[in-house]
Amino acid sequence: MARPSKHDGSKYQRKDGKVLWMVYRDRSGKRIRESTFTEDWQEAQRKLRERHQARDEKVLDIVRKGEQLQFADWVDFFLENYSKPPMRAEKTHEANERVGRYLKEAFGDRSIREISADDIELYLRKRLQARVQIKTRAGVVQKDRLKPATVHQELRVLRRMLNVAVRKKLLKVKGLFRPHYMNWSEQQRIEFRAPEHSRNIIRIITETVCGCTRS
Hints:
Structural class: alpha+beta
């Protein structure tokens, strides 16, 4: 097996466009050429470094696959392998399937790596404004708005899906940070200053992500 060199990667610009390409070797020594999908030299260099790191950690094929994996396909994979009994209770699986349908409608045709925190926040906003729909013989009847607890549950399912993707090396958590665990009085002050339509989102995020404690 060929031994990869530390200096086996480079970036270049093709004559038919401005986007930078990169070339590097995998662990077998085979040269791989692929687009960095950016015109920025620093961003292209970062992408090349990530390729070298993935190669050295023996997850290059998985990382490249993750960049092309559509979110809808990942939802189906998660439901099949991490949601069904005996992994989870039947009722939990049914709830996950229901949430999965809404998530696929929102993100299904996008790469799993393209979904950002802003996209998730926008999804939560839309769901908090949505109304319960009930099918009747006369058609679909709209009831009251969804309860925050329902949207909260959807966020929990989405987090589990993304956490599994991180463990499988299909997603990479960028950057390190020190979490701040918000207490109840801090949350109240933020809610008091926030627009009314944002308060449910604040409750969901703080209680789900920040581990808010009521003290």
